[in-house]
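Entry for the shared binder. Reason: the reviewer on the internal report wants the predicted structure included alongside the sequence.
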Amino acid sequence: MALHGDDLCGLVALHECARRSYGDLLNPTFHFVRDTVARQPYAATVESIGRSVDRVEELSDWHDDVAFRYAVQIGNERWMVLLSIVGPVACVHRAARDGELYLKAADFVTEAPAGNARLGVVISIIKASGFLILNAEQVAQEMMFNPVNDVGPCPVFRVFFSDLEDVPWSE
């Protein structure tokens, strides 16, 4: 599958990828979740990430996630890495700090911020494993999807990372 960054071709590829996993996007099935979780297809990627950071903790909730979720500790910073099981897409964002209710779109990164070489290594591992890392604008794009009796356009985030959660930020 040829996923591209910011262009319409990328959204079309995301739509096709979602259709292959869910079947009919207006009447999706989630049959692929249990099988993918059992196979642990990203174990090698996560092991590589674990060797380059202080700590990796899996936080996946298979009642509503369609992505492996990992909290990654790098020094005093905590980052979230989401590896979709719908297709080869990922999301990397700063974890909410104590007292924060919402993230900002700027917390989603596709490249490491200046001065954070270890996060750069994590991002390089994810990309080398064949994932396209989506930015905030891309995960906010809408596509037709009907998760859990909620017909209508949904953000890409909901389709690829959590079938119950819209974009996890507030501006």
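Summary line for the report: Strands lie at 55-58, 67-74, 77-84, 89-94, 108-109, 132-133, 142-144, 153-155.
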